[in-house]
Design a protein that fits this description.
- The complex is a heterodimer of chains A (about 300) and B (about 675).
- Chain A is built from 11 helices and 1 strand.
- Chain A has about 300 residues and is mainly α.
- Chain A has one domain.
- The longest helix of chain A has about 30 residues.
- The N and C termini of chain A lie far apart (about 40 Å).
- The relative contact order of chain A is 0.16.
- Chain B is mainly alpha-helical and about 675 residues long.
- Chain B has a domain of about 375 residues.
- Chain B is built from 24 helices and 5 strands.
- Chain B has a two-stranded antiparallel ribbon. Chain B has a two-stranded antiparallel ribbon with strand order 4-5.
- At the A-B interface, strand 1, helix 3, helix 4, helix 5 and helix 9 of A face helix 17, helix 18, helix 20, strand 3 and helix 21 of B.
């Protein structure tokens, strides 16, 4: 019973804290640029405001456009419930849950793309087309990192993989961890539409991917999409953080959740730093980057005994 | 068994009646549809009985032809394929009622229904026959009746061309099967009964030759690359309910053939499984890439069938490797995944072809770039097409996910297995490559189906073609709705009946020493754990729907034009087309596809004319087969002098051949 309450509390807390991560990035970028910057809680204000607004729909769109944001948020929440959090096993877990977890991300893509295409705008079509090719190239790397974890832990369940006791300082041997970790970091950047693959703050629709796909969404629908992005950032960073911080029986119980949360904050700050120091890659360069991390994760997988 | 024979009789009799009454279209259609539906439904019941009966149902009658017998055997494997064939056939027959109405004045529908019923009957005999001659006869009838259906609109030159390509490809495949069966018959005492083929004293080499012949012969029917060239030609030419039958179920008889023959050949060596995996991967990846580059929606679906047959073959290959390595878990997951994908693909591919048929009939075009915005005009067709697209991409919460999940899991288990036994490096490689291949196929399929669905059904209409489109009549709609419902219900069927059904099928396929029952139970138990997750997802979705409704209830919800970035006169022509959607991928992998582009850019200051044409070439067809056949033509031209058109000399050839055979018989045989 107590465990149930704790896990309920942790998951509810994570749902509330998720938008915070996306608020940290602009703060880091503002600090780098020496600007005042937006408040840390800006995403919360945005979400509240959006939830209080009406909506404008294009006359071209059909119910597919209205369905999109709901399907995306529902899939993200289901994936969220399949993810172990701070050392607590996920409410939904079984043998092979990591495949279903990855496939919910694909479901989001499907509906983001068709919802964008529903508007008939060439801008949104452009974003959708880029999203399709970029996600196609990212998936092998993501699966290879998962396969590396599966191979090392002899388990198909995210909860078992991340909560198995580890005698060492890391879940994977050093070189493998480096290769898989860097691959997963790039996957996080791609999945969350960050620099160097996509730039959410660019001023021209022509150069955006994710932001241009949601140009026509407004009101609660846009709120759903925004919250989906927050959850996505939370889920992906927590995946990498749990990979970096294994469960070590020799340390006190409270140390791991704290270390994981700290790592997650560190990761979003790192993303902010990356966005401050480098520009978005040219579109034709992106496939090279993605094939590169696929190769890196493949090498990591092969290095693992 | 009697029930199955009744079903056959009803199918054939109804077909003949339709042919006899072909002067009266309504009566002919009545006989054709009702017999196809009743016969198939009876057959479905028979197949259920076969699947769940502990002993196979058998029927044996003599047939006064050497080596032949009218031997039928309905075991679990046959029953499973029979269920897929007749279940889909019954549904497409109903669709055919509405679909063919538009052709009533132009074509002899009696003949169409005759061949349709004959095709269904022949396919069911193919999977049930237990004699080589009967099998080949049914196989040939299946090929010919589908040929006549493909060439229904034979006044069009492209349809005739497609028909001939199909006929030739199918017969090249059948030639391999003939030779294969005769080699097998050489080991028995003058019979081709399948029961005599069991446990033949085959050497490893002979068994391997037979296996390769089976893969080529059956692979041609199944549409495996490089034998797939007939699919993208035949499907656009055929009427849509026939495409649905051919792509949904007929190509699966090839998979059945490979499985059935493999039961004769004993323990598979490792390279058989690796061969299947390799062919499956090439078919899957090339199939989906070529699909992505198509502009014609039926060609697109045909290439997509190549992809899915590739996934099925991949699963089979992994299962075979499991058999070789004596690992029941890999075997169970691989084979069960492949079999489940046979059922799933049958459902969603026929659904997609039926939806496409409705679209093509309403708009008179197969070009995706001429369509658009049809979801508003054909809401039910569009919705079922969306369900089919989500299912075929293998996305949760529909049936396609489950079969791909099994195959994924099988390749993950391979990784474990190879880890335990360090010597088997090749297995490790196979597992890794199939894992990456499956992921890439998934990503490309997602791009391909978002492309085609949004090109046809979303956005604004691109041309006038969609002006008068509306949902078709109830018979076509009900077929699509039933199939879409199946996409949702199959997971439950697997949950309840999977352990028993897969266990009895796999008992036929795996060597007797191997026990896969517990592993099948494990696999189906996973489904019992996946379904609650689907339930949670659907629950959250409805909760969000309620939340959104409550938020928008008292707020202004207005309509406006799509955000046009200050551009004042947006036209439907500035929309992204399906070709432009696919362009990043076709550019990236252009060399592999031979993607040709022809651009005439606008010139001068007041230019008016510009054009852009893109076209994907199937290298297997345009380079491989074209050159091969041209070479053959050139070679055989040298024999032209034999064919001079003088009849009396031709008769002399016959006499000469007879004399030659007589001398051979006297001298060498007796």
């Amino acid at each position: 019973m107590a465990i149930c309450c704790i896990s309920l509390g942790v998951y509810a807390g994570a749902l509330i804290l998720a938008p915070l991560l996306l608020g940290i990035i602009p703060r880091v970028k503002a600090w780098f640029a020496g600007r005042q910057g937006q408040p840390l809680l800006q995403i919360y204000y945005d979400l509240i405001k959006l939830s209080q607004k009406g909506a404008v729909y294009s006359t071209t769109t059909t119910w597919v456009f209205r369905l999109g944001p709901m399907v995306c948020l529902a899939s993200m929440l289901t994936a969220f419930l399949m993810l172990p959090m701070f050392g607590i096993s996920a409410p939904l877990q079984f043998h092979g849950d990591l495949l279903l977890f990855a496939y919910f991300f694909a479901l989001i893509r499907f509906f983001m793309i068709v919802a964008a295409m529903d508007t008939g705008s060439s801008f949104e079509g452009m974003g959708a087309s880029r999203e399709a090719v970029i996600s196609m190239l990212t998936e092998p790397s993501f699966f290879l990192v998962l396969a590396t974890l599966v191979k090392h832990n002899n388990s198909f369940s995210l909860s078992e993989i991340f909560n198995s006791a580890s005698p060492n300082w890391s879940l994977l041997p050093g070189p493998v961890l480096a290769l898989s970790g860097i691959s997963l970091l790039i996957v996080i950047l791609v999945e969350n539409y960050r620099v160097p693959v996509d730039d959410p703050t660019t001023h021209l629709e022509l150069t955006m991917i994710h932001e241009v796909m949601v140009l026509d969404n407004s009101g609660p629908d846009f709120g759903f999409i925004m919250y989906t992005s927050c959850l996505k950032m939370w889920i992906t960073t927590s995946l990498l953080a749990q990979m970096l911080i294994p469960a070590m029986p020799t340390y006190p119980v409270w140390s791991r959740p704290l270390a994981i949360f700290g790592t997650m904050i560190g990761l979003v700050m790192l993303i902010g730093v990356i966005e401050s120091v480098m520009a978005r890659l040219r579109l034709v360069r992106i496939p090279s980057l993605l094939v590169g991390i696929t190769t890196a994760s493949l090498l990591g997988f092969l290095l693992l005994k | 068994m009697e029930l199955f024979l009744y079903a056959l009789v009803i199918l054939i009799a109804g077909g003949v009646l339709a042919l006899i009454f072909s002067f009266h279209t309504k009566l002919a259609c009545f006989w054709g549809i009702s017999s196809a539906f009743v016969g198939s439904t009876l057959g479905v019941i028979a197949s259920f009985m076969a699947i769940f009966s502990p002993k196979p149902l058998e029927y044996y009658a003599l047939w006064p032809i050497p080596y032949a017998a009218f031997a039928l055997k309905l075991d679990a494997l046959s029953g499973f394929f029979l269920l897929v064939i007749l279940g889909i056939a019954a549904i497409t027959a109903i669709y055919g009622k509405g679909y063919l109405k538009h052709y009533a004045n132009e074509y002899n529908l009696g003949a169409v229904w005759f061949f349709f019923n004959l095709l269904i009957a022949a396919m069911s005999v193919v999977v049930v026959s237990a004699n080589g001659i009967l099998f080949l006869a049914a196989w040939e009838i299946m090929t010919l009746s589908s040929f006549f259906l493909v060439t229904m609109e034979n006044e069009k030159p492209e349809v005739r061309r497609a028909g001939f390509i199909y006929l030739i490809a199918a017969h090249i495949g059948t030639a391999f099967l003939f030779v294969m069966f005769w080699i097998l018959a050489g080991y028995t005492e003058g019979t081709m009964d399948f029961s005599k083929f069991m446990e033949l004293p085959l050497t490893q080499e002979i068994a391997s030759i037979l296996f390769v012949m089976a893969v080529i012969g059956f692979g041609t029917k199944a549409g495996l690359i490089p034998f797939h060239v007939w699919l993208p030609e035949a499907h656009p030419a055929a009427p849509s309910h026939v495409s649905a039958i051919m792509s949904g179920v007929m190509i699966k008889t090839g998979i059945y053939g490979i499985l059935r023959i493999s039961t004769f050949l004993g323990m598979p060596p490792l390279w058989w499984g690796i061969l299947l995996v390799a062919i499956g991967l090439v078919s899957g990846l090339m199939g989906v890439l070529l699909a992505l580059a198509q502009h014609n929606i039926k060609r697109f679906l045909a290439y997509c069938s190549v992809e899915n047959i590739g996934i099925i073959t991949l699963g089979l290959g992994i299962g075979f490797i499991g058999i070789t390595c004596q690992n029941p878990t890999i075997t169970a997951l691989g084979l069960a995944g492949a079999l489940l994908h046979v059922l799933n693909h049958g459902i969603f591919k026929s659904l997609l072809f039926l939806g496409t048929g409705a679209v093509v009939q309403e708009t008179n075009t197969k070009q995706m770039d001429s369509l658009g915005g049809l979801l508003k005009k054909m809401p039910i067709t569009g919705t079922t097409f969306l369900i089919g697209s989500v299912a075929i991409c293998g996305l949760p919460p529909l049936n396609g996910f489950l079969s791909e999940f099994f195959i994924y899991l099988a390749s993950f288990y391979h990784i474990f297995f190879a880890k335990d036994q360090a010597v088997l490096g090749s297995i490790f490689g196979v597992a890794l490559v199939s894992l990456i291949g499956l992921v890439l196929m998934g990503g490309l399929a997602l791009a391909a189906f978002t492309k085609s669905f949004s090109g046809v059904f979303l956005g604004e209409p691109r041309t006038q073609a969609t002006q008068n489109a509306h949902d078709p009549d109830w018979s076509m709609l009900s077929a699509m709705i039933v199939l879409a419902g199946c996409c949702l219900l199959v997971p439950f069927g697997v949950l309840f009946y999977g352990p028993q059904v897969f266990a009895s099928i796999l008992a036929i396929l795996v060597p007797s020493g191997m026990n896969v029952v517990t592993d099948i139970a494990y696999a189906c138990d996973l489904i019992a754990q996946i379904l609650p997750v689907f339930g949670v997802f659907i629950g959250i979705f409805f909760a969000l729907m309620l939340l959104r409704w409550m938020m928008l209830k008292n707020r202004p919800v207005t309509q406006a034009v799509t955000w046009d970035c200050g551009y004042l006169a947006p036209t439907p022509r500035i929309q992204y087309t399906t070709s432009s959607f696919a362009q990043p991928i076709t550019d990236l992998l252009g060399e592999l596809l031979h993607y040709h582009k022809k651009l005439e850019p606008p010139t001068g200051y007041f230019s008016a004319k510009a054009s852009f044409v893109s076209h994907a070439i199937d290298i297997f067809m345009e380079i491989g087969y074209r050159n091969l056949f041209q070479y053959l033509l050139k070679t055989f031209r040298k024999l032209d002098w034999l064919q001079h058109g003088r009849l009396h000399l031709y008769l002399l050839y016959i006499a000469g051949t007879l004399v030659g055979l007589f001398i051979w018989f006297i001298e060498f045989v007796r």
